[in-house]
UniProtKB/TrEMBL annotation:
Name of the protein this chain belongs to: Probable GTP-binding protein EngB
Domain named EngB-type G: residues: 22-197
SUPFAM superfamilies linked: P-loop containing nucleoside triphosphate hydrolases (SSF52540)
Chain's role: Necessary for normal cell division and for the maintenance of normal septation.
Family: Belongs to the TRAFAC class TrmE-Era-EngA-EngB-Septin-like GTPase superfamily. EngB GTPase family.
InterPro entries: G_ENGB_dom (IPR030393), GTP-bd (IPR006073), GTP-bd_ribosome_bio_YsxC (IPR019987), P-loop_NTPase (IPR027417)
Pfam families, sorted: MMR_HSR1
GO MF, any single term: metal ion binding
One GO term of the biological process aspect: division septum assembly
UniProt entry tagged with the keyword Cell division: yes
Organism the protein comes from: Mucilaginibacter arboris
CDD domains associated with the record: YihA_EngB
Keyword entries, A-Z: Cell cycle, Cell division, GTP-binding, Magnesium, Metal-binding, Nucleotide-binding, Septation
Length: 211
């Protein structure tokens, strides 16, 4: 797929104010600082589209970007960031959970995992929680340029093995680097394929009951 346009649409904390659920949508989530916003900029070839930072906790809202005027990318705040207050954390968790469970046009969640790390409990639990809710997701390993291929492959294998505790079949994965554009074509092709199957008539437009 060629990305011809990528435009910021809106930032929200309320599901009732999201754009109409009439186009396929893909959400990017993962621990703070894992590289969600950088990956979105890499996929769209638009530096600065999603705001990035060396300091964790940069993205704090549900951010919608419209790609090729036909599908949405959503940049979400990171989970597991220690330096925010408990009440703020609960507030974030609530609306992110609400969004993931109720967004009817959400086709797939990209769960981002830092390829430099051994499997982390918080990531495995997050994958399991989406699995339990029947929310489709794929795994995306980030920052692959930060170490050699052997180390990346080892960590990927370890994560997939750890997932077998929760899943009979481990979901599809991508290995990426925002620096080197690794994984760009694979992810865009995947999205393109899923987009082809999207039928707006299958989406019963979400009627907000509460935020
Ligand atoms: N070397 C390298 N650095 C990366 C890569 N992806 C992200 N980074 C760096 O990691 C830091 C965090 O990136 P962000 O894209 O802001 O991370 P995020 O997951 O959106 O963070 P929050 O919004 O705070 O949750 C930045 O300093 C990026 O430059 C990558 O593929 N390679
Ligand atoms: Mg971010």
């Amino acid at each position: 797929m060629i990305v011809k346009s990528a435009d910021f649409v809106c930032s929200n904390t309320q599901i009732s104010k999201l754009p109409p659920a009439t186009k396929p949508e893909y959400a990017f989530i993962g621990r703070s600082n894992v590289g969600k916003s950088s990956l979105i900029n890499m996929l769209t070839s638009k530096k600065g589209l999603a705001k990035t930072s060396q300091t964790p906790g940069k993205t704090q809202l549900i951010n919608h970007f419209l790609i090729n005027e036909s599908w949405y990318i959503v940049d979400l705040p990171g989970y597991g960031y220690a330096r925010i207050s408990k009440s703020k954390k609960e507030e974030w968790n609530k609306y992110i959970r609400n969004y993931l469970e109720k967004r009817e046009n959400l086709q797939c969640v990209f769960i981002l995992i830092d390829s430099r790390l051994e499997p982390q409990k918080i990531d495995l639990e997050f994958c399991a929680s989406l699995g339990e809710r029947g929310i489709p997701f794929v795994i995306t390993f980030t920052k692959a340029d930060k170490q050699g291929k052997v180390k990346t492959d080892q960590n990927v294998a370890k994560f997939r093995k750890a997932m077998l505790a929760f899943f009979e079949e481990v979901p599809q994965h991508f290995i990426t680097s925002a620096e080197l554009q690794t994984g760009r074509d694979e992810i865009l092709n995947f999205i393109d394929e899923v987009n082809q199957k999207f039928d707006v008539n299958d989406v019963s437009i979400y009627q907000p009951d509460q935020d």
